[in-house]
Amino acid sequence: MTASSTYQWFTSSYSGGSGTECVECARVGDRTLVCDSKRDREPVISVQAQAWLAFTDALKRGDLEVR
């Protein structure tokens, strides 16, 4: 999937402040687009919005190991 500049991208709250972990997301319909902003938003993965919400909720609860 190709990233579009027409999407409203935002930096994930899980991105590091040092600029080394730059995850950006955009909501498009029932999907969430995810990319590494250091790579000019290419490649982009597309995830069902509900699956992305479950993933981020699991991170917030500490259910997943973050490396």
Describe this structure in a few short sentences.
The protein is α+β, with helices and mostly antiparallel strands. It has one helix and four strands. Strand 3 (31-36) and strand 4 form a beta hairpin.
DSSP summary, beta strand count: 4
Summed over residues and divided by their number, the pLDDT gives a mean of 81
Report helical residue fraction: 10-25%
- Report the sheet with the most strands, covering strand number, pairing sense and barrel closure: 4 strands, antiparallel
Low-confidence stretches: none
Number of helices: 1
How are helices and strands ordered from N to C?
Answer: EEEEH
Q: What is the molecular shape?
A: flat
End-to-end C-alpha gap: 26 Å
Helix/strand structural class: alpha+beta
Describe what you observe in this structure.
With 67 residues, this protein is α+β, with helices and mostly antiparallel strands. The chain has one domain (10-61). The chain is 19% helix and 28% strand. The protein contains one helix and four strands. The protein has one helix spanning 49-61, and strands at 10-11, 23-28, 31-36, 44-48. A four-stranded antiparallel beta sheet has the order 1-2-3-4. A hairpin with a 2-residue loop joins strand 2 and strand 3. It is flat, with a radius of gyration of 12 Å. The N and C termini lie far apart (26 Å). The relative contact order is 0.20. The mean pLDDT is 81.
